[in-house]
C-alpha cells in the first residue's frame, strides 16, 4: 500500500459510493442462498404462507433426513461427482494441449486450427444430429457421452491460449537449450507457471459439469445413471412437462414439499460452493512477475 | 392440463425437426397391413378375444418409454414387473425419462429414429408432430388385433371422440386412454364456513357465485373474496377454461382457436364469439367491483395459496388434489376453516360436462411393425391398457396382495398399503413400493375403477357432474389439417393466441373498455383470423368429402 499520497475528496466519495453499491450487490446475491437454507429447515406451513425470509421458522431437520435416506439421491450424487471428475480431467488435458499448440506462433496452419475451434462457437449440428452421432458412436449410457462432446469449451480454450502467449518465450527457449523436448517444456516449465489459469479452468469446467443436466438427460436411459441435477430437476419441476391432468394428477400422492425441494437444492449446490474459497487464491497471484531477469 | 401452452411450444418446435428427420425414420412402402404382419406372429396367441388373459406363447420383451415420476420413481423390484411377466410372459425394457422433461426426450428419440417400440403417456395433439415423418404407426390400421379396444370403443360409443383425433389421411396414430364417463376434475373451491357465517347456500350458477362474492365483500369490505392461481405461463388457465366452458367458449387450458357451433353447423373463432365476450364481461364485473383479486392473473400459485391460507380470500379454483394437498393443509391451523370443491357452476351453456372422455395414450414406433413379435405386442397392449383385468391390474395390483374384493365385487386396497391418502398410517405405498397406479400404464376405464381412490366427497361431486350431458363442442367433427396447412395454421395461431390472451386480460382488468369490442374483432381480422377460419372450414369440408 502506498502511503503519503492523500486521497482526493472525489476519490473518497467514490470509495463510499462504491462500497454501498457493492454491499447492495452482495446482499442481493446472498439473499436467495440464505433464504433457501432457511426454507430447508422450516416447517412447510410457514413456507407456504410466505413467512420464511432469512431465518428458519418452525425449525426442524426432518426434511434432511428424508432426502438423505433416499438411496437414489446418493446414487445420483455419486454419479455427479464421478462425471464431474472424469469430464473435468478430460476437458483439462484436451484444452491445455490444444491451447498450448495454438499459442505457438510458428505453428503451420495455426489460423486454420483456431478457425476450426471458433467455428463451433457459432455453428453446431443441432440437437438431433448430435444425438444420432453420440448414439452411433456407442457412447450412450456412459460417462463419455457427457465428457467427450463437451470436452473443449472454445471460450476457455481462447482464454488459455492468450495466457500461454503471454508467457515469455525466453523461458521455453532456455528450457529447450537445457535439453527438454516439447512435452518436457509443457509439463515442467509451462504448467508449473500456469497454476492460476489451470485452477481457473478447473473451476470453470467443474462448475459447468456439476451443474449440467441436459446431456445426461439426453444420453442416459436409466435413472441409476442420472446425475443429481436431473434428480433435482425432476423433483422440482415435477411432472408438469407431461401435463398435470389425467392419471398423473389423480395419482400424485402429494406435491413434493417445499422443504424437501430446498434441502435438495442446498445439498446439491453446497460442494461446488465450498470449492471456490480454495481455488480463489490462485486468481490473485501474478506468477510470471520477475521470472525473466536482465 | 398444466402448462398446456408450453407443451404446444415444444410440439411446434419439434415438429420442424420431425419433418426434417422424416428421411431418417421413414421406412417407406405402403403395403397391405394384414399381409406384412402375418410373418410377425411370434409369441402371439392364436385366438385372442375379449375376456381372454393374454399370455405370449414364448417369453418376449418390448422396449418402452417410461415416465419417471419424482414422487414414485421406478424400481427394479416392483411387483408390477414381476406379476406382469408372470401373467403375460412379457418383459418391458424401460427407457426411463425424468417426468420434468418427458416430452422433449420423446421428441428427440422419435426424431432420431431411436424410439422404443411402445411410447405411452402421449396427449393428443402431441402425436401430430410425428405423423408426417412416418416414425409412428397409424394404429387405426391394426385395431383388429385389439379386441378389447374395439369392444370398449363400441360399448361406450366413443367413435365420434376417436374420429376427432384422426389425421387428414383418415387414420389415427395414437391409441387414446378411454373413459366410460367424462371426468371433470377442476372447479371452484369455496370456504363453506364463511358461507354458513353469512347464511348463504352453495352457489349453483355463476350468477350465484357473483351474489356470494358480493355478500362476502359486504361483510369483509377490505379484502378480495376471490383470488386465483394457475396463472403461469398464461393468466388463470383454469378459470378461463371452466368459466368459458359454462358460456360455451372455453379459454385458458381448454382454448381452441376454432370451436364447433352445432346450431350453425360450422366452426367459429372462439375468442371472437359473443359467448367469449359474455364471460369476459362477467369477469370484468368481478374485477371492477373488487370481488376478484386483480393479481389473480399474474401471481404464482404459492402467492395465491398464501392468500387463502391467511384468510385474505375465500374462493379459488382447484381440483380434488389441490383441495386435499394444498388448501386444507394450508388452513390446518385455522380449526373452523372448511373448504369444499363445489360442482362446476352453471352458465348460459346450461348444465354441461365440458370434459373429454379421451385420456393420454400410446404411440407405437413404426419399427415395431417389422418386429417378429409385433402381433404379440399389440395383443399385449390391448390386454394391459384396455381389458378389464389389465386395467384393474395396472391400477389396483394383485388381488389378495394389494387389494381385496368384497361380496359385491367392490375393490378395496389392503390396510397396510397407502395410496392417495386412504391409509395414512400404512407402512407401504401402492405406487412407490409396488409400482401400480403409476400414471404410465394406468388410466381410464369404467367409473368404478377411475374413482376407486376417490374420497366420498369427490365421488359425490362426480355423481353430480356425470349426470350432466356432455358439452356439444367437446366432440367436434374431424377437421384435420394437412402438413402444409398445419404449418401455416401454427404461424397464425401463435400470433392470434398471444393477442387474444393479452386483449382478453386488458378487457377483464378494465384497461380497455368493452365498448372497444368491435375494434378488437377488427384487430383479430388483421391478424389473419378470417384466413385461419377459411383454412379450418376447408379442412372440414375436405375431410367430410373424403372420409365422410
TrEMBL record, chain A:
Highest classification ranks of the organism: Bacteria, Bacillati, Actinomycetota, Actinomycetes, Micromonosporales
Name of protein: Putative aldouronate transport system permease protein
Chain ranges passing through the membrane: 12-34, 81-100, 112-132, 144-164, 185-210, 260-279
The organism of origin for this protein: Asanoa hainanensis
Ranges for domain ABC transmembrane type-1: 77-276
Keyword Membrane annotated: yes
Keywords for this protein: Cell membrane, Membrane, Transmembrane, Transmembrane helix, Transport
Subcellular location: Cell membrane
Membrane topology: Multi-pass membrane protein
GO biological process, one term: transmembrane transport
UniProtKB/TrEMBL annotation, chain B:
PROSITE patterns: PROKAR_LIPOPROTEIN
Gene3D superfamilies per record: Periplasmic binding protein-like II (3.40.190.10)
Signal peptide: 1-27
Keyword flag Cell membrane: yes
Record SUPFAM superfamilies: Periplasmic binding protein-like II (SSF53850)
InterPro entries: Bact_solute-bd_prot1 (IPR050490), SBP (IPR006059)
Keywords associated with the record: Cell membrane, Lipoprotein, Membrane, Palmitate, Signal
Keyword presence, Cell wall biogenesis/degradation: no
Any coiled-coil regions, as ranges: none
Family matches, as PANTHER family: ARABINOSE-BINDING PROTEIN-RELATED, POLYGALACTURONAN_RHAMNOGALACTURONAN-BINDING PROTEIN YTCQ
Protein name per the record: Putative aldouronate transport system substrate-binding protein
Amino acid at each position: 500500500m502506498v502511503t503519503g499520497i492523500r486521497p482526493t475528496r472525489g476519490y473518497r466519495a467514490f470509495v463510499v459510493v462504491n462500497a454501498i453499491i457493492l454491499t447492495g450487490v452482495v446482499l442481493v446475491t446472498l439473499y436467495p442462498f440464505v433464504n433457501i437454507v432457511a426454507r430447508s429447515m422450516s416447517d412447510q406451513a410457514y413456507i407456504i404462507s410466505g413467512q420464511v425470509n432469512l431465518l428458519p421458522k418452525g425449525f426442524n431437520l426432518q426434511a434432511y433426513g428424508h432426502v438423505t435416506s433416499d438411496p437414489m439421491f446418493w446414487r445420483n450424487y455419486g454419479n455427479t461427482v464421478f462425471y464431474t471428475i472424469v469430464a473435468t480431467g478430460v476437458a483439462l488435458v484436451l484444452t491445455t494441449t490444444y491451447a498450448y499448440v495454438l499459442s505457438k506462433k510458428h505453428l503451420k496452419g495455426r489460423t486454420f486450427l483456431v478457425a476450426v475451434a471458433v467455428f463451433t462457437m457459432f455453428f453446431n449440428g443441432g440437437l438431433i444430429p448430435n444425438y444420432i452421432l453420440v448414439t452411433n458412436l456407442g457412447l450412450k449410457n456412459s460417462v463419455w457421452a457427457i465428457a467427450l462432446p463437451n470436452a473443449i469449451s472454445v471460450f476457455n480454450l481462447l482464454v488459455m491460449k492468450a495466457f500461454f502467449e503471454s508467457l515469455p518465450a525466453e523461458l521455453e527457449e532456455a528450457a529447450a537449450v537445457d535439453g527438454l523436448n516439447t512435452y518436457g517444456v509443457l509439463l515442467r516449465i509451462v504448467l508449473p507457471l500456469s497454476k492460476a489459469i489451470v485452477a481457473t479452468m478447473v473451476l470453470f469446467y467443474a462448475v459447468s459439469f456439476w451443474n449440467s443436466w441436459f446431456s445426461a438427460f439426453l444420453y442416459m436411459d436409466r435413472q441409476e445413471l442420472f446425475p443429481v441435477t436431473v434428480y433435482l430437476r425432476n423433483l422440482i419441476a415435477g411432472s408438469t412437462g407431461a401435463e398435470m391432468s389425467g392419471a398423473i394428477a389423480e395419482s400424485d400422492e402429494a406435491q413434493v414439499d417445499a422443504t424437501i425441494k430446498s434441502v435438495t437444492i442446498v445439498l446439491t449446490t453446497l460442494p461446488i460452493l465450498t470449492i471456490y474459497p480454495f481455488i480463489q487464491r490462485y486468481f490473485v497471484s501474478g506468477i510470471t512477475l520477475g521470472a525473466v531477469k536482465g | 392440463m398444466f402448462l398446456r401452452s408450453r407443451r404446444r411450444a415444444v410440439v411446434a418446435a419439434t415438429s420442424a425437426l420431425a419433418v426434417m428427420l422424416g428421411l431418417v425414420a421413414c421406412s417407406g412402402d405402403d403395403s397391405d397391413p394384414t399381409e406384412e404382419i402375418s410373418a410377425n406372429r411370434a409369441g402371439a396367441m392364436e385366438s385372442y378375444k375379449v375376456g381372454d388373459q393374454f399370455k405370449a406363447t414364448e417369453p418376449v420383451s418390448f422396449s418402452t418409454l417410461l415416465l419417471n415420476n419424482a414422487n414414485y420413481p421406478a424400481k427394479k423390484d416392483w411387483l408390477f414387473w414381476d406379476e406382469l411377466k408372470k401373467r403375460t410372459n412379457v418383459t418391458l425394457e424401460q427407457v426411463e425419462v425424468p417426468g420434468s422433461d418427458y416430452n422433449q426426450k420423446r421428441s428427440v428419440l422419435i426424431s432420431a429414429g431411436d424410439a422404443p417400440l411402445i411410447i405411452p403417456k402421449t396427449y393428443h395433439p402431441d402425436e401430430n408432430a410425428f405423423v408426417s415423418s412416418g416414425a409412428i404407426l397409424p394404429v387405426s390400421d391394426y385395431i383388429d388385433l385389439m379386441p378389447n379396444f374395439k369392444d370398449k370403443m363400441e360399448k361406450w360409443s366413443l367413435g365420434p371422440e376417436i374420429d376427432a383425433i384422426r389425421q387428414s389421411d383418415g387414420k389415427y396414430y395414437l391409441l387414446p386412454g378411454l373413459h366410460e364417463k367424462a371426468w371433470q376434475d377442476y372447479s371452484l373451491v369455496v370456504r363453506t364456513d364463511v358461507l354458513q357465517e353469512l347464511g348463504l347456500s352453495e352457489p349453483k350458477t355463476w350468477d350465484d357465485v357473483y351474489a356470494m362474492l358480493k355478500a362476502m365483500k359486504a361483510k369483509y369490505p377490505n379484502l378480495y373474496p376471490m383470488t386465483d392461481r394457475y396463472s403461469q405461463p398464461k393468466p388463470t388457465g383454469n378459470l378461463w377454461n371452466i368459466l368459458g366452458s359454462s358460456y360455451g367458449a372455453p379459454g385458458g387450458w381448454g382454448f381452441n382457436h376454432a370451436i364447433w357451433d352445432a346450431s350453425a353447423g360450422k366452426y367459429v373463432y372462439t375468442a371472437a364469439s359473443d359467448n367469449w365476450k359474455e364471460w369476459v364481461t362477467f369477469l370484468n364485473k368481478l374485477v371492477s367491483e373488487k370481488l376478484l383479486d386483480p393479481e389473480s392473473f399474474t401471481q404464482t400459485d404459492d402467492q395465491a395459496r398464501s392468500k387463502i391460507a391467511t384468510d385474505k380470500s375465500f374462493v379459488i379454483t382447484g381440483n380434488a388434489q389441490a383441495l386435499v394437498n394444498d388448501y386444507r393443509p394450508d388452513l390446518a391451523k385455522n380449526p373452523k376453516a372448511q373448504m369444499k370443491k363445489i360442482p362446476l357452476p352453471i352458465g348460459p351453456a346450461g348444465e354441461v360436462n365440458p370434459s373429454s372422455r379421451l385420456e393420454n395414450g400410446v404411440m407405437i414406433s413404426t419399427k415395431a411393425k417389422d418386429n417378429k413379435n409385433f402381433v404379440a405386442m399389440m395383443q399385449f397392449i390391448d390386454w394391459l391398457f384396455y381389458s378389464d383385468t389389465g386395467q384393474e391390474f395396472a391400477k389396483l395390483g394383485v388381488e389378495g396382495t394389494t387389494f381385496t374384493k368384497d361380496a359385491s365385487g367392490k375393490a378395496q386396497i389392503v390396510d397396510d398399503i397407502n395410496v392417495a391418502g386412504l391409509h395414512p398410517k400404512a407402512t407401504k405405498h401402492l405406487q412407490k413400493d409396488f409400482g401400480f397406479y403409476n400414471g404410465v400404464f394406468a388410466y381410464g376405464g369404467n367409473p368404478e375403477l377411475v374413482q376407486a381412490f376417490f374420497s366420498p366427497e369427490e365421488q359425490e361431486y362426480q355423481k353430480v357432474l356425470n349426470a350432466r350431458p356432455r358439452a356439444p363442442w367437446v366432440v367436434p367433427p374431424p377437421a384435420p389439417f394437412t402438413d402444409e396447412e398445419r404449418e401455416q395454421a401454427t404461424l397464425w395461431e401463435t400470433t392470434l393466441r398471444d393477442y387474444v390472451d393479452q386483449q382478453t386480460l386488458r378487457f377483464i382488468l378494465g384497461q380497455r373498455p368493452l365498448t372497444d369490442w368491435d375494434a378488437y374483432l377488427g384487430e383479430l381480422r388483421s391478424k389473419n383470423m378470417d384466413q385461419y377460419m377459411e383454412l379450418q372450414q376447408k379442412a372440414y369440408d375436405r375431410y367430410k368429402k373424403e372420409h365422410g
